Amino acid sequence: MTDSPSSPVWAVVAMAVAIVVLAVIGVVLVAVQHDDPVELPEPEPTTSVISPGSSTGSPSTLGGGG
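^ that's the sequence the OP posted. Answer follows.
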């Protein structure tokens, strides 16, 4: 029975999985942090042309909500 090669393999697999998990978590955190500020600024030219009176430029105002 060769148990010695089994241990290093599991160690490498565990390290690889840990690295992948950490990388995914890091990417998700960065994406979430960068998603909010990027989503706030809406296309001002388009909204200003449709509703020049609304300074907020929210699409909800176009539906007559007020």
